[in-house]
DNA sequence: CTGAAAGCGCTTACAG
DNA sequence: CTGAAAGCGCTTACAG
C-alpha cells in the first residue's frame, strides 16, 4: 500500500507536490508532473480516502434511505440516484428501512458516524412525527445535508422534491370515474404513511367532484406489500362489496388486489379496473399491463442528487420542488 | 462538532480515556466512565469516522455490485445483504453496473479509493475475462476482500457462493419436459453472461436426457431485460416457431416472453408454459403466477456477508459454497 | 512553482 | 487504571 511519501520519494519531489499533481495539476510544471504520474503508476498508488476525508472534512458519499429496496419502485429510484451520484463523483450508501420507524430513527442517529455528506430520504412513512423530527434535526446539527424525496418536512429547512400525491390519486381516481365506474375503492399503504394520507385526500376529492357523497367512499389499508393487500381486498369482496375500480397506493398492492380479484373469478378490467399511483419499470409487462401514474425516475434521481449536492456546498436550494407526473393508461383500466 | 478532546476536557480526563470508554469500557473505572458518558451526551459527541478509519485502516463498509438494481431479483438481494451488513455493523455501498463491463472495470479500479473493506460481486456478466480479472487482482492487491455471489472466478482466490445454474436450468427444463411439452425454447440473458452459459448447458442436458437431439433445441438470447426478450420471442413466433414451453434465464425476460405470446393470442400455460430460472418477491402475484427456481435470498445474503467479513478478518473461508435451489411450480407452467 | 510544517481526530503501545 | 506521545496519510496556508 504505497503512500504519498513513497510516491514523492520515487519521483524526487515533496509530498506537497504529489498532492498538487493530484488535486490541481496545472499548478505543477509539466516535467515534475510527468515524473509524479510515472511514480504513481509504478507504485500503483491510490490516495487513502480516510486520510483525505479527515483532512477535508468531507466524504464524497451520500446515503439513500428507502422504505423497502425489494419493491420495484425503490429499486428503480436507487438506480437513478446511484447513477447521478456516480456522475458527480459520489458513492452511495444504501439504507433499507423495511418500513420501520425505529430503524429510521436509529439510522438517522448513526449516519453522522458513517461518514456521509448528505442524505436522501425516500420513504413514504410519515416523517412529521416528533421522534423522527428530533433525530433529523440532530443530524442537521451535525452538519449533514438532507433532502427529502417523498414528502415535505415542516420547518426544519429540509428541501423536498415531491410529486403532488393528492393530484396523483385524484388523477388516477378521475380516470376511473370518467369511465362511469362505481364504486371505487382506495387501497392505501398504511396509516403511518404521509403519502397515503395525501393520496386518500386526492381520491376523496375526485369522488366528491364526481358527485359522490362521503358515505359512499371506501378506503382500505395495507402495508405497501402485496400480501396484506390481497388479504384486505379479499375480505372486502367476501363481505359482499363489489368494486368497479381500485386505486392502489403502490404497485405491489395493486398486484395483491389483482390476485384477490382473479382468485374469486373476477376479471381485470372487465369486472374491476385497477390503477396504481406508482409506476414501475415492469408495469407494462404485467398481465394485464398496469395503468399507473408515472414520474420520470431518471430525471427525478438526477434532480434530487443535484439539490443535495448544492445543499452540501452550502448553496441556496429551493425549499420545495414539484415533480411532474402523468397518468399512463394501460390494459388494467381500459 | 465536538471532538474527543472536547469530551476529555469536559469530563476531566485524557482523550485516551475517552477513547477507551468508547472501545473497551471495562478497562475504565466506573466513576470516570460515567463522567465521560455524561460529557458525550452533553456535547452530543460523535466520533469522527474519518479519523477512526485512518487510524485503524478499516472502514466498516462493504460494497455490493449488481448488474441492475432496478430488476426485482437484485433489489431483493440488496435488501438481504444490506440487512446482514447492518447486523454486523457495516454500511453498504451500492454500485449499479447497468450490465456494463466497462462500468465494472472502472468501478473495480475506483473501489480502493472509496474506502471499503470488502466487495460483493453479484453480476451475471462473465468475470473470467482478462480485463476484469486484471482489475480484480489489482483490487485484491490493495487489500480489499472480495466474494462473488454469482459465479466462480478462476484461480484468483475469490470465494464464491453460487447456485448450480446448470442444475437450476436443468430442473426448470425437466419440469416442462415431464409434462410432455415440446418444443422448449431457452431464453438466455446474453452471450457475455457466465450464468446464461451454464443455464444453457442445463437446458441442453435436460433435453438430451429426454431423448431430444441437438438440432431440435432452440436457444435465443436477450439482454436480461423484458423489452429485448419480448422482441426476440416475438420474432421467433412470427417465424412460425411454436414452442410449447419457454425456460427464461431471469424474470423480466419471462415477462417479456409472456407479453410476446399473449399479444399473439397465445395463452399461458395452455398454449405455452413458462418457467423462470430466478425467483422474485412478486412472482406469486404475477398473472398467471410465475413458476421459477427459488433460492432463499434472506439466507443467501446473510451467508455472503458472513463469508466476506471472515475474509476481511483474514480467516480462512470456503473457496466455493453451493447455495441450494428448488423449483416452485406456479400457474405459468401447470 | 515548490517544500517544510502543521494539523485534521482518532487509537494504541508505552510508561507509570 | 490512566495519561503523554506518536502516528495513521493526507492537504493547505505559508514562506521562499
UniProtKB/TrEMBL annotation, chains A, B:
GO terms for molecular function: DNA binding. InterPro entries: HTH_LacI, LacI/GalR-like_sensor, Lambda_DNA-bd_dom_sf, Peripla_BP_I. Pfam families: LacI, Peripla_BP_3. Keywords: DNA-binding, Transcription, Transcription regulation. SMART domains: HTH_LACI. It comes from the Bacteria. Residues 2-56 form the HTH lacI-type domain. This is DNA-binding LacI/PurR family transcriptional regulator. It comes from Kribbella aluminosa.
Amino acid at each position: 500500500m504505497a503512500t504519498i511519501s513513497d510516491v514523492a520519494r520515487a519521483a524526487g519531489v515533496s509530498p506537497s507536490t504529489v498532492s498538487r499533481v493530484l488535486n490541481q495539476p496545472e499548478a505543477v510544471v509539466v516535467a515534475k508532473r510527468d515524473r509524479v504520474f510515472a511514480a504513481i503508476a509504478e507504485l500503483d498508488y491510490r490516495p487513502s480516502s480516510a486520510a483525505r476525508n479527515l483532512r477535508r472534512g468531507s466524504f464524497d458519499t451520500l446515503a439513500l434511505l428507502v422504505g423497502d429496496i425489494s419493491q420495484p419502485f425503490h429499486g428503480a429510484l436507487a438506480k437513478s440516484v446511484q447513477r447521478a451520484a456516480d456522475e458527480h463523483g459520489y458513492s452511495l450508501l444504501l439504507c433499507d428501512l423495511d418500513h420501520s420507524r425505529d430503524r429510521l430513527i436509529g439510522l438517522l442517529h448513526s449516519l453522522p458516524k458513517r461518514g456521509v455528506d448528505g442524505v436522501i430520504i425516500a420513504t413514504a412513512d410519515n416523517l412529521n412525527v416528533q421522534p423522527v423530527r428530533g433525530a433529523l434535526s440532530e443530524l442537521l446539527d451535525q452538519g449533514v445535508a438532507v433532502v427529502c424525496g417523498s414528502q415535505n418536512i415542516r420547518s426544519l429547512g429540509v428541501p423536498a422534491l415531491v410529486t403532488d400525491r393528492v393530484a396523483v390519486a385524484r388523477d388516477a381516481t378521475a380516470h376511473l370515474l370518467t369511465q362511469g365506474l362505481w364504486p371505487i375503492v382506495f387501497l392505501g399503504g398504511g396509516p403511518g404513511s404521509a403519502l397515503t394520507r395525501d393520496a386518500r385526500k386526492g381520491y376523496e376529492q375526485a369522488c366528491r367532484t364526481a358527485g359522490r357523497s362521503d358515505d359512499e367512499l371506501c378506503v382500505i389499508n395495507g402495508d405497501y406489500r402485496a400480501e396484506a393487500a390481497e388479504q384486505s381486498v379479499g375480505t372486502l369482496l367476501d363481505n359482499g362489496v363489489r368494486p368497479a375500480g381500485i386505486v392502489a397506493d403502490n404497485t405491489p398492492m395493486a398486484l395483491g388486489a389483482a390476485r384477490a380479484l382473479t382468485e374469486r373469478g373476477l376479471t381485470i378490467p372487465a369486472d374491476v379496473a385497477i390503477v396504481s399511483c406508482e409506476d414501475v419499470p415492469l408495469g407494462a409487462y404485467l398481465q394485464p399491463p398496469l395503468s399507473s401514474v408515472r414520474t420520470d425516475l431518471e430525471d427525478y434521481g438526477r434532480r434530487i442528487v443535484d439539490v443535495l449536492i448544492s445543499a452540501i456546498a452550502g448553496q441556496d436550494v429551493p425549499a420545495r420542488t414539484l415533480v411532474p407526473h402523468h397518468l399512463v393508461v394501460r390494459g388494467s383500466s381500459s
